[in-house]
Amino acid sequence: MTPPLTPPAIEARGLTKSYGDVAVLRGIDLSVAPGTVFALLGPNGAGKTTTVRILATLLTAGGGTARIAGKDVTAERSAVRRAISVTGQYAALDEELTGAENLRMMGRLAGLSRAAARTRADELLGRFRLTDAASRRVGTYSGGMRRRLDLAASLVGEPSVIFLDEPTTGLDPRSRQEVWELVAGLADAGVTVFLTTQYLEEADRLAGRIALIDGGLIVAEGTAAELKRRVSGERLDLAFAGRGAYEEADRLLGDLVVRREPDELRLGVATSGRAEHVRELLDAVDPDRRLVERFAVHEASLDDVFMTLTAKEPAHV
Amino acid sequence: MSNALTMTGRSVRLSARTPDALITALVMPVMLMCVFVYFFGGAIETGGEYVQYVVPGVLILCAGFGAGNTAMAVASDMHNGIIDRFRSMDVGGRAILAGHVAASLARNLAATAVVFGVAMAIGFRPQASAAGWLAAIGVLVCYIIALSWLAAAVGLVAKSPEAAGGFTFFIAFLPYPSSGFVPVDTMPSWLRGFAEHQPVTPVIESMRKLLLDQPVGGSGWQAVAWCAGIAVVAVAASGALFRRRTS
């Protein structure tokens, strides 16, 4: 007997989008299983926000199809909208209204009765530790509080798929930690979370699966562990005595370099971690034994994946 | 429909929380009314007390300032992430804009009450019957709704809330080349043509005649036709503009 087919929570086939001559998306394929956290990781301008806006019915794709819980984002837009919520990079709140008023308004728009909207708002304010600030205007909130209220607002209608576009950009480390905990909580409650981020650490911590986007294309997809394996098991870090030695080695190694830290005079090279390979690399880069001062072998990080698979420098946390 | 009501509540609340815009929209017309009545009014021949003549023009001026606020509110929504949240909750553009227009009407009627209050205090004595009052207010409501939809459309076109605010100057200027402050037949002939045929003149004329219990003539129908025409065009344009801005 075949098990009943549950459609993916999110499915995209060949999504494209251009503005004039500029192709922002050049054929995005994605599939996200229900109840999982999926991260779209990429540098600024890679097409993350455009992808989210298309999946969330806010933007029409130039080509390709997208389905949310089996429903087409264009043909069945209203049904899709009932199933999703979107939290963008900028807080979608009325600054002049209080936190409670914002949530009650969203409740009414989500179809709750006046009383139900009030109950739901109180419950969410409590859950997001905003009860004390409930009757203050949002304009007086800190960045972290705003983000929490914004997330709370996106949950009013009890969506089954939540889109979070760069949920921690611009937050201080403590607020970022709080948002991470809230997102992890959502996933535990069985909600499908689709988040975009330029922080590798964020994707690594929160997401079961990660897709790397660069220049409007998915360049790699898998679990964090799978992606790390794609680069190589380990990374050899070479520290140099001076600027000249660093630059000379950089020239010699060329494409082999997966990590450059010019300020520290350090280069990272992919390696299997075996002594034989490490020795070979050292001989290759420094046959006269005068350039390399120290070396260390590390397990490869997502940074290395990012560096190897995208042209640009990743943003560091 | 229930979304439109929620959006109206939101817009009314937002206006109440930003009283400076409301006060500006109120103080300017009241000040201008005083300037016209006390500074210029003595020199303007209108066949009676000047204050009896000028009040409808001031009310229309007031509606112009109010429309500027509406254009700014719509433009500011379009530049804020909140529009995406509303859309992702399947709240249509029509409901969002209708909320702004309804709130605009509420603000304007409050402003109208204040202008009437000040006008009475400085000697305005309307002669209208109950039916005349109702008809005069009806004409004003038609004008406010038409202008508010037009303002909403301008707010959708504007590149920024500030640019949308510039609309105020244009709309607030329209009552001057009309019969609002001086009789049209005192104007140079080239201007008279415009003044007699622009929408503000029949609106002001019909309100003035209704309030002073004089025969309204054709100006009543002209006023309603102008308002209906502007409203139909503005509603259609704002629907199309909203779709274009959000696709």
Automatic annotation (TrEMBL), chain A:
Cytoplasm found in the keyword field: no
Pfam families referenced in this protein's UniProt entry, alphabetically: ABC_tran (PF00005)
Membrane topology: Peripheral membrane protein
Secretion signal span: none
GO terms (BP aspect): daunorubicin transport; doxorubicin transport; response to antibiotic
Subcellular location, record wording: Cell membrane
GO molecular function: ABC-type xenobiotic transporter activity; ATP binding; ATP hydrolysis activity
Positions of the ABC transporter domain: 10-240
GO cellular component: plasma membrane
Keywords assigned: Antibiotic resistance, ATP-binding, Cell membrane, Membrane, Nucleotide-binding, Translocase, Transport
Keyword hit for Transmembrane helix: no
Enzyme kind, highest EC tier: translocase
The enzyme's E.C. designation: 7.6.2.2
Matching PANTHER family: ABC TRANSPORTER ATP-BINDING PROTEIN (PTHR42711), DOXORUBICIN RESISTANCE ATP-BINDING PROTEIN DRRA (PTHR42711:SF19)
Membership in a protein family: Belongs to the ABC transporter superfamily. Drug exporter-1 (DrugE1) (TC 3.A.1.105) family.
Protein name: ABC-type xenobiotic transporter
UniProtKB/TrEMBL annotation, chain B:
Similarity field: Belongs to the ABC-2 integral membrane protein family.
Gene Ontology CC terms, in alphabetical order: ATP-binding cassette (ABC) transporter complex
BP GO annotations: response to antibiotic
PROSITE patterns according to UniProt: ABC_TM2 (PS51012)
Membrane topology type: Multi-pass membrane protein
Localization: Cell membrane; Membrane
Coiled coil: none
Record key words, sorted: Antibiotic resistance, Cell membrane, Membrane, Transmembrane, Transmembrane helix, Transport
Molecular-function GO term, any one: ABC-type transporter activity
Name assigned to this protein: Transport permease protein
Keyword Iron-sulfur part of the UniProt annotation: no
TM segment ranges: 21-41, 53-75, 96-124, 130-157, 164-184, 223-242
InterPro entries: ABC2_TM (IPR013525), ABC2_TM_bact-type (IPR047817), ABC_2_transport (IPR000412), Nod_factor_ABC_transporter (IPR051784)
Major location category of this protein: membrane
UniProt domain ABC transmembrane type-2: residue ranges: 20-245
